[in-house]
Amino acid sequence: MASVEFKNVSKSFNAFKAVSDVSLDIGDGEFVCLLGPSGCGKTTSLRMMAGLETPTSGQILIGGKEVTHLHPKDRNIAMVFQDYALYPHMNLADNMAYPLKVRGEPVQKRHARAREVADVLKIGHLMDRLPSQISGGQQQRTSLARALVYPAQVYLFDEPLSNLDAKLRLEARGFLNHLQRDMGMTAVYVTHDQAEAMALATRIAVMDQGKIVQYASPIEIYRRPATTFVANFVGNPPMNLVEVECEQGEGQLLLKGEGLTMQGLPMTDAIGKALATSGKKLTLGVRPEHLAIAAAGASNTVTAPLFANENMGPESLVTLDRGENARITARIFTDDHLNVDKVVTLSFLAEHVHLFDGTGKRIPVAGE
């Protein structure tokens, strides 16, 4: 296995800049997810790692060796495509063994290796079938097996689970997690599904408009999103973001918004600087699981009419409508029945809130 490094890599298609000055380091044996919405540059970045696209500027290194202009066959990488890209006229054994065939391996050796990988992926009994004769999940495993038959330095995955149904995606996700830990492979995985990224990655690079806006562990990104974009993109339901007016008093902040009041957040130099540039307005963020039905006398609260109450089995998603599509969602673990149109008060603790400045950047709180 090997490390991967981007040094100020950019890629333009005529006037459109798909990737803009991206620097990224991926350690040997890491599983890194490139996460973001359609058009953010994640697939273009992966294709540049594979050698299918050439950077407009910058350098790409694999295992410390520059590969920016190397042909894909000379990079010692393996790639799993979104549409599996299986040869329809070949049986599974020949599909899996094809990377060894083009490298001149004898037929007996390449078929033995294909059988070995297929048994690990639990599709060894399907070797004589054509791709059209197996399920989508089995096609996905065949595509994965083809990537694994030849030991590569880096394994690249381009949304390989997007064509599977929900149950198969969960099974395949767990299998990939186990396989990466078992093999210690260096893997780069492109997805727009934040649940996949959170479940699989050792680190996540969140991308937006061709740039990496945060690169950290899944738990760091979830607990301390760098921007409102990350806060809104990572999490299901996403973080609630509310514009608030700030007042200072005795070393603490008093925050007020539509139907919202909060006190008890310590004043810091970072918050003071943000207030100096944005007036008295900041954005408050709180995760749905950190909201609860307010008890009598609760101090930090938000009150609004109930918009929806979705029973999810072990929990309910309670959404309040603050007007003009400004809604707040809470994850409530209670059997209490709430009627739509009823006015509901939710409470939250000061230690669970986030503040973002006028540019959308997170402001460090006391103790960070």
Automatic annotation (TrEMBL):
The keyword Transport applies. It is found in: Cell inner membrane. It comes from Devosia marina. This is ATP-binding cassette domain-containing protein. Belongs to the ABC transporter superfamily. Gene3D superfamilies: 2.40.50.100, Nucleic acid-binding proteins, P-loop containing nucleotide triphosphate hydrolases. InterPro entries: AAA+_ATPase, ABC_transporter-like_ATP-bd, ABC_transpr_MalK-like, ABC_transpr_MalK/UgpC-like, Mo/tungstate-bd_C_term_dom, NA-bd_OB-fold, OB_MalK-like, P-loop_NTPase. Its main location: membrane. Pfam families: ABC_tran, OB_MalK. GO terms for cellular component: ATP-binding cassette (ABC) transporter complex, substrate-binding subunit-containing. GO terms for biological process: carbohydrate transport. Keywords: ATP-binding, Cell membrane, Membrane, Nucleotide-binding, Translocase, Transport. Residues 4-234 form the ABC transporter domain. One of its GO terms (molecular function) is ABC-type transporter activity. It is a peripheral membrane protein.
